[in-house]
Amino acid sequence: MGQIKYPILIILIIFFSSCSFNYEEAMFDSDFDTQIPKTILINYSQITVRDGQNTTKLEAARAENYDQLNKTIINGLYFYEIDNNGNQLMEGWADEAVFYTETENAEVYNSIYIYSFTEEAGIFATSLLWDKEAKLLSSDEDSIVTLKKDDGSIVSGIGFEADLRRKEIKFNSTIDGTYFFNEDE
User: Fold this and answer.
1) Tens digit of pLDDT for each residue in 142-159?
2) Residue 88 vs residues 53, 66, 117, 140: alpha-carbon distances, Å
3) CATH for 27-178 (1.10.10.10, 2.60.450.10, 3.30.70.2970, 3.30.10.20)
């Protein structure tokens, strides 16, 4: 029986001496937390009520939440907003959006359409940026944005910027279209 203990002891010594307790190489990359979403939601729906007034409903085919980066990537986006009387204020959709949770700013991409029922106008674009604090909606400098009103006005241009506080819209270049001026505006 004493003879069996020594070979087992020798095997254990060889085994443990060949093992490394340095796990540095097996550790995840420090960027790992930012590369994989904390949460993935499929066929996502969210209803938000602000100050007991307007209600916004957001639907998405997929939403990926990255806590470390304070952002959510949304695919297949559709949203609408109604007032407390049930009147629809706004509706829109886009292929993709990046929502920054700390600032509530957003980047929206591809097949964008936003319609305001109160303004009776819609926006068509491929890229838009929303700055919540400044209440500024803008496009990339080289993106074409088209505005279409229910009265038949249609204007397209490059370098779109809408200041929603002042209700001002401007284009930086290449403006084309027809605008019907209403004296009440």
Assistant:
1) 889 999 999 999 999 999
2) 12, 31, 7, 29
3) 2.60.450.10
